[in-house]
Amino acid sequence: MARVGWKAIHRWLGLTAGALALVLGLTGAILAFDPVQQSWQAPAAPGDLSVATLVERVAGTVPGIEEIRHLPSGAIVVFSFSGDQAQAHYVDPADGRVLGAWQPSALPRWVKSLHRSLLLGDAGRWGAAGIALAMGLICISALVLLLRRMGGWRRLGARVRGSLAQRIHVVTGRVVLAVLCLTSLTALTMSASTLGLVTLDAGTEPDVVSVVTGQTALPGAQLSALQNLAVRDLRKLNFPDASDPEDIWSVATLQGEGWVDRYSGNMLAWQDATFAQRIYDWALVLHTGESAWPWAVVLGLVGASVLLFWLSGVVIWWQVRSQTLQITGNSPLAQADVLIFVASEGGSTWGFAQALQDALIHSGHRVHTGALEHFQTAPATRQVFVLAATYGEGQAPAHAKDALERIAKLTTSAVPVTVLGFGDRQYPAFCAFAEALEQTLRARGWPALLPLECIHQQSSQQFTRWGQALAQALGEPLVLDYVPRVPSTTALTLVARQGYREHSDEPTAILRFAWPAQGGGARLGHFAAGDLVGILAPGSAVPRYYSLASGSQDGFLEICVRLLPGGLCSTHLLGLQPGDSIAAFIRSNPGFALPRTRRPVLLIGAGTGVAPLAGFIRRNDRHTPMHLYFGGRDPAQDFYFGPEIQRWLGEGRLASVQTVFSRIPEGGGYVQDALRRDAERVRALLAQGALVRVCGSRAMAKGVAEALDAILAPLHLSVAQLKAKERYAEDVF
Ligand SMILES: Cc1cc2nc3c(=O)[nH]c(=O)nc-3n(C[C@H](O)[C@H](O)[C@H](O)COP(=O)(O)O)c2cc1C
After folding, report:
1. CA 617, CA 603: separation in Å to the nearest integer?
2. Would you say the CB of residue 424 lies under 6 angstroms from ligand 1?
């Protein structure tokens, strides 16, 4: 199974059989109306009522009764003959009163036929059974993939990340997967009987007749066999034919079938329900919800959810497909001097591999790129690169899950293998799979051209810097040109600009852009403080990302930009004057967003990193206790949002602020120093369940994590644990 892959099973069965399962799901949802409607139409009989009493009551109100049926909904239906006219009526079990005509279903027959046999008769029944089997496999593979994606049973309830389609697919899956599995299983059970693979009854009926003794036949109410039988167990009761003296009463119950003498009232014969019949009965109830309308409602909703599954599944498949580049310029593995192996779930790492391959080919190499599970070297191989993304709780992408084990078993060669990790620092196990690869390769004695480097959030800048180190190590003029796929952009106009340190070598500004008019706002979509705005400088295809200090609710888009010497985008942004515009798009940053909370919030930021934190405070209309630690260099130069912070304190949006400035005497040092000084207070906040958001440089985030680890130690907690509980998130640059 590992070779074929659960993912491939899920994907291909989902796309093909899933489309047909959609028909069964939707017709199933329609059929679920029946039990609901039936339960409205007639009252359920009290379970402890004896069948004899029921017979007595209905015999008084309905002439010519042939059969009494106790429906799964609990209602009683009486079949009778009036003249030569067959009739069926609901009756009230309390007094035998006729309530109205009975109809087996209010729905057109073809809906049931479509559900059971796709309108194709016997062949269709096999088809429907095949779809149920495929659905079962889809459900099992879904469970395996869900566990893999979430990182095990314990994390099954954790927040789902990924694109909107992925979130819909996974969240709906978590809710309805168990019911869908059950529905497929019960469908298969029922198909086994309809297709004749299993027989339900005991075979032949006993050949029994009433023994004519000259006595008059007993009325049903006096038959001891019926007096001892409760309606709760009854399925149906057939009356003897008045014109045939030898005819008998026959009764079907949940436990079996019996035949009763019409003169003595004795049970002439009894057959227990077979095991297969009992299983079938359970399957029927669970599959149709016939005897419990609330369950029918659940089944109906789950049936309809198949549509959501299938559509989101198709979108995910399409997204991955369009992201997974067909590698161009690939040489055969045996002839290539450079091999690139890729481990990717979402497909973006293949784009980086293509950029590396293009640069190496440009530099005169023959390059082969393939999936990591095919890792190997050939006599011609001179360099190997492994580009690996991390998923779940630090795991490999699905296709490469056995790759590590495989690599550990290979014979080591002298060819250098360099690992480049792709991950996201918001996950506790940042680039853990790439680290595991690096460790295994080094432990096995493979040399490396460069030490492990981990790319955060698919940063093309970081990739380019790694390319420069690679060029140096190879001694070749290599230029990595990774162009990410960029969504369509919207023009945003600058409306206000507040400059800081204008005459230093690192001028900074808070830039406020107007909410775009005429539909641009809709195209930009909803965003919140902490999300990212991608900005394309004129002439560049590579966006730069800035954390947003405002949300769409604020009606403007605000960022804080520091000049990066030689930086194309920051130079462009700092040169803007009110009225100028930029090309921008939004990239959500769900791991960093602040959920609505009543818990205290600890906001820690340094330099321009205060921007998203300012956005959180600005929106804090509910006065959640937010405590800000801000670190700058000099209050006269870089206390960004200083006046606003004072105002927010006054308005109660901010509960407290501690500032430190590293470049003035008695300034207090760095934020981590302030945290250490306030250890008692910070520990108390964390003990109360505070959420933590850290934004600033990588070095600052590291220093803060170390300080907090020491503060948390007496609580037997760590930053890693808070990250795993989604209480701690970093936005670093
Ligand atoms: C569901 C999910 C789980 C992830 N888990 C991790 C993780 O545990 N550690 C990590 O560093 N990155 C994690 N990431 C981030 C990805 O590794 C990162 O976005 C990578 O660049 C994706 O590359 P790909 O598109 O080639 O799969 C996760 C991403 C998603 C969508």
Report:
1. 9
2. yes
Residue 550: pLDDT over 90: yes
Task: Give distance in angstroms: CA of 732 to centre of ligand 1.
Answer: 16
CATH number, position 464: 3.40.50.360
Q: Is 389 in the pocket of ligand 1 (CB under 6 A)?
A: yes
Together in a domain, 519 and 459: no
> Is the overall model pTM greater than 0.80, yes or no?
no
409 and 381 housed in the same domain: yes
Contact 103, 148 (CB under 8 A): no
Q: Answer yes or no: is the C-beta of 31 below 6 A from any ligand 1 atom.
A: no
**Which residues have a Cβ under 8 Å from the Cβ of 187 and sit 6 or more positions away?**
24, 128, 129, 132, 135, 287
In a domain, 480, yes or no: no
- pLDDT score, position 324: 59
Residue bearing the bigger pLDDT, 399 or 629: 629
- pLDDT > 60? residue 3: no
Are 137 and 189 found together in one domain?
A: yes
For residue 394, give the ligand 1 atom closest to its CA: 8
What is the Å distance from ligand 1's center to 508 Cα?
A: 32
Cβ of 482 closer than 6 Å to ligand 1, yes or no, is no
CATH code for position 723 = 3.40.50.80
Q: At what angle do helices 121-150 and 164-194 cross, to 10 degrees?
A: 140
| pLDDT of 280 above 70 | yes
428 lines ligand 1 (CB under 6 A): no
Residue 534 belongs to domain with CATH number:
2.40.30.10
Note whether 312 and 345 are same-domain residues: no
Same domain for 676 and 662, yes or no, is yes
629 and 682 assigned to the same domain? yes
Average pLDDT over residues 670-683: 96
pLDDT in tens, 162-171: 778 888 999 9
Name the residue with the closest Cα to ligand 1, atom 1: 161
345: CA distance to ligand 1 center in Å? 8
pLDDT digits (tens, 9 = 90+) for 428-448: 789 999 999 999 999 999 999
Give me ligand 1 centre to Cα 390, in Å: 5
Label residue 91 left, alpha or beta by phi (over 0 means left) and psi (-120 to 50 means alpha): beta
CA distance 438 to 434: 6
What's the token pair of residue 74?
């609990």
CB atoms within 10 A of CB 362: 14
Maximum alpha-carbon separation in the chain:
122
Same domain, 702 and 606: yes
Q: Is the C-beta atom of 347 inside 6 A of ligand 1?
A: yes
Q: Is 87 helix (H, G, I), strand (E, B) or coil?
A: strand
How large a percentage of the chain has pLDDT more than 70? 97
- Count CA atoms closer than 13 A to 674's CA, side-chain side: 24
Between 43-52, 251-260, 405-414, 634-643, the lowest mean confidence (pLDDT) is in 43-52
Q: Is residue 209 part of a domain?
A: no
With a 6 Å cutoff on the Cβ, whether 124 touches ligand 1 is no
Report CA(346)–ligand 1 centroid distance (Å). 8
Note the ipTM here.
0.99
User: Does residue 323 surpass a pLDDT of 70?
Assistant: no
Please indicate, yes or no, if residue 285 is contained in any of the structural domains: no
Task: Say how many Å lie between the CA of residue 7 and the centre of ligand 1.
Answer: 17
- The string of pLDDT tens digits covering residues 443-462 is 999 999 999 999 998 888 89
Q: What pLDDT digit, counting tens, does each position of 91-133 carry?
A: 999 999 999 998 888 788 899 899 988 888 888 999 999 999 9
Ligand 1 within 6 A of CB of 669? no
Q: Ligand 1: which residue has its CA nearest to atom 8? A: 394
Q: Smallest Cα–Cα separation from 632: which of 641, 623, 621, 620?
A: 641
Among 145, 345, 455, the mutation site with the greatest number of ligand 1 atoms within 8 A of its Cβ is: 345
Separation of alpha carbons 45 and 53, rounded Å: 12
| Average pLDDT over all residues of the chain | 90
* 514 domain residue, yes or no: yes
The range of the structural domain enclosing residue 628 comes to 601-732
Residue nearest to atom 4 of ligand 1 (CA): 391
Amino acid at 366: R
Tell me how many domains the chain contains.
5
Q: Say how many Å lie between the CA of residue 391 and the centre of ligand 1.
A: 5
* 456 & 540 share domain: no
Residue with CA at minimum distance from ligand 1 atom 5: 391
